[in-house]
Amino acid sequence: MIEQLLSTPLTDLTGVRHPVVQTGMGWVAGPSLVSGTANAGGLGILASATMTLPELEQAIIEVKERTDEPFGVNLRADAADAPARCELLISYGVKVASFALAPKPELIARLKEHDIVVIPSVGLPKHAVKVASWGADAVMIQGGEGGGHTGSVPTTLLLPTVLDAVDIPVIAAGGFFDGRGLAAALSYGAAGVGMGTRFLLTADSRVPDAVKQRYLIAGLDDTVVTKKVDGMPHRMLRTELVEQVEGGAGMRRLVPTARRTLEFKRMAGMTWKQLAVDGRAMRKEQGRTLGQLALAANTPMMLKAGLVEGDATVGVLASGQVVGVIDDLPTCEELIDRVVTEAATALKRASGYVV
Fold first, then answer.
1. 6, 40, 75, 310: which could join 332 in a potential S-S bond, CB 3.0 to 4.6 Å?
2. pLDDT digit string (tens) for the chain, length 355 residues
3. Which ranges in 173-253 belong to alpha helices (H)?
4. How far apart are CA 231 and CA 355, in angstroms?
5. In this structure, what is the dihedral angle of CA atoms 66, 72, 77, 82, given to the nearest 10 degrees?
6. Which Gene3D superfamilies match (predicted)?
């Protein structure tokens, strides 16, 4: 394990040694991966969207048993029980709350009262300006190269426009996998990088080995962005199922969609009222149609089938384009040591160009 080589606003803000974030991937970012990242000096983010409230509490306890280092929890800002989940973070002294979508100002204020660092994910400069005005400590941006729900603007254009728009630290995600990428992001002015697919493909990840091998053989052109899984742009591996969904008519997906909605409701322990409240929030905040809301219930179960159960015939495999350049399964410590060392070397080399 290497000592700190790079000091940035991210390391200062969160207390981690290295400006590397393991993003909160549903069904992937569990206690093993998060604690492995934290012990290696990075910022591990626990994914809570696919957990019930008791499951989240148990996961936080397990991470704290595995590490004394800072870590974070990713939350759905539009979830009906988001305030209750924030209270868990406060109770257990979690260092960072990261959010998909923008948390309400009162939620940010509540977390900051307890010195919890608030880092929402944003897709446009105007969103960064909004959450910064509400008190967010930093933001994470993800360019179109990233996996899962993603936008169309590449990281190389999204990052500088967000940096120009706000004065708080910006973490860059989408297309990062090595030290050269970290060096490039820091040169742009970012405070660090977030990596998802690269951490999924580590020895500390609990994704089944057979699924990891499927990722490892993928090429740069083996991902696809589709709206047909849940109505929003979603980058994933190009599998037989994805090809079928892409080519299928909406009505033929109606029955399995309804079935998966019921399964997710049962698994999450949600009442019909909670499901309706979440649905209304998604419709209001994201502008989704009723059909897209029905499709959205597909996502957790299809990701679980692929990433937990290892069945790509009925599940999907979220992936960034970087999958095409990854060919190994290091531990989190080996990965972070390598990335940070390479970045420091690249920055020193680049400084030699200055006259």
1. 40
2. 899 999 999 999 999 999 999 999 999 999 999 999 999 999 999 999 999 999 999 999 999 999 999 999 999 998 999 999 999 999 999 999 999 889 999 999 999 999 999 999 999 999 999 999 999 999 999 999 999 999 999 999 999 999 999 999 999 999 999 999 999 999 999 999 999 999 999 999 999 999 999 999 999 999 999 988 777 899 999 988 888 877 764 445 444 545 555 555 555 555 555 555 555 555 455 555 555 555 555 677 777 877 888 777 767 899 999 999 999 999 999 999 999 999 999 999 999 999 9
3. 179-188, 197-200, 209-216, 240-247
4. 51
5. 50
6. Aldolase class I (3.20.20.70)
pTM assigned to the model: 0.88
Q: How far apart are CA 36 and CA 189, in angstroms?
A: 27
Structural domains of the chain, with CATH: 9-208+327-351 (3.20.20.70), 219-318 (no CATH)
